[in-house]
Design goal:
The protein is mainly beta. It is built from eight helices and 38 strands. Strands 1, 2, 4, 6, 8, 10, 11 and 12 form an eight-stranded antiparallel β-sheet that branches.
Amino acid sequence: MALKNYNLLLIFKFSIFFSLLPFSLSQIDTEAPSPVSDSCNGIFLSYAYSSGTKLKPTDPSHQAYRFESVLTVLNNGDETLKSWRVFVGFKNDEYLVSALNAVLDDGTSLPANVGNGTLFAGYPMSDLKTAIETAGDLSQMQVQVNLLGTQFGVAAPDVPLPQSIQLANDGFLCPKASLQGKNEMQVCCTTDPKFKTNVTVDEEFLPRQSGDLTIMYDVTRTYESNYWAQVTISNHNPLGRLDNWKLSFDWMRDEFIYTMKGAYPYVVDSSDCIFGPQGTYYSDLDFGNVLNCERRPTIIDLPPTKANDTNLGLIPKCCRNGTILPPTMDPSKSSSVFQMQVFKMPPDLNRSELSPPQNWKINGTLNPDYKCGPPVRVSPSQFPDPSGLPSNTTVVASWQVVCNITEPKGASPKCCVSFSSYYNDSVVPCRTCACGCPSNTARTCSTNTPAVLLPPEALLVPFENRTAMAKAWADLKHLTVPNPMPCGDNCGVSINWHVYTDYSRGWSARITIFNWDETAFPDWYAAVQMDKATPGFQKMYSFNGSTLEINGVNNTIFMQGLPGLNFLVAETDGANPQKDPRVPGKQQSTVSFTKKSTPGINVAAGDGFPSKVFFNGEECALPSVLPISNSNRKGSTTLLSIFLAIIVFMFVQQ
């Protein structure tokens, strides 16, 4: 009897165990947060180092080690954390190979160097809900980013923890992170009571943000296996510009581009689909018609001749050879639009399963550098009804990518400026290596020697043809000639600013733009910032000039060519290519100023020279010195000019 009761009790215990087992297993899908997080009533962040091993090759001075870590973001607050962003202050020259559940906020594709710290953005889970609205469901409140990479110099038993971790979303305060043992650091970020926002808690989407350039990704039609997206690139910077733009991004879920209108892939290739999972799933699809299957495609604009093409064009604001002008110049040409049909892969075969590409990047030729953030879900865009009715059509879903102009570390300018004046015969040329220099110049020129003063005539010939003129000028002016001579500026575009006159009531300058490149510039423009002289600007005679207010400061003069003068031609051969140097494309205008609105201005002392110069949105390198007043001029300028002409003639005849 006792044995029977024991067996019944044993069966009862096993039945209870197996009845609870499914519930227990369902709880381990999301790792429980650290007990320390219980005391956090905000956004809890932790960075935990998991493991690491030594990597080959062996290098005691710079040894590489594999590292695996987990970044945890937990919403313990009372409001949904939308589009979470976390900064991790890496400090050991880390090279990040992969990041599960996140992307780099600046649009850089992995693997990437993150040794100076980096910003992570959530993907695919960008919003973290609260415990209140999810009944404590960690799968909706928390995200864990599994990091894998290489770090240098930190060997066991030391742990390569970052310098800091902090929430990058607006409206939060994060104290210094605290250590939990040797392998983990944690911080609790709370809302800033002083922060004011226009976003209400009940709003489903974040508001659209401003930036130098924005990209809208609007899904206009959706089906089970594919959808149509319209991409709109809009320029908002008064001096920003793109020429021959190239747009790239990463597909994250094996998508591919079937067809396009208004733009085209830089490479038409379907081989990745044919030999990949796409070819297996879409076995009946003719991949000969597929445009691109690259994980990271590059998109280019179409030429104007395709604007009315029934297959590729007929999209408003398309087909402009990749030119996007600033809105201050022509608002109708400050954006570019194209459409593409995107095919999806399992398990996303649902009309509502929509995921935009990540890691956006856009650039152009002789244009500023842009860094783009991740796509952020915003309220669906609305467009005028195509039927012409007085109503708007709402798209299925919209994401916004915000890009801002940056200056990459170590990047060289693409244009330069020389200064000259009526009170000094010599021209202060562009700086040595203003736009970079070849790596091996030891035997030919010096990259460190300052540029030598030039006669005005030297500005009209390429740098390689200036040596004889520069040496002759140095001899006339009793200047020292360095050996070796300084390297050139290596800029495709150079601009000369010449102070032309200076009298009691006003003064004038002359600006000359030289194109030394093989590419012409249609619809070119330039801008100069003058800290004291801009209020006295009167007019330009060969350009269309106007003052421009930027960030509340009215110190910029914006200029573009008049009708018929808005095309800066490329460099061409001389009349006799065997003897004559190449001839640059050139545009020139005089600028007049009044002193009535700028009392106390000292033109010769520097007020007559710009503090910044831009060409087609790119900031140009300025000389390090200004022309000085030459009170010791003797002899006839005419004689000097004749002598120089003889030197040039002898040089050309050689």
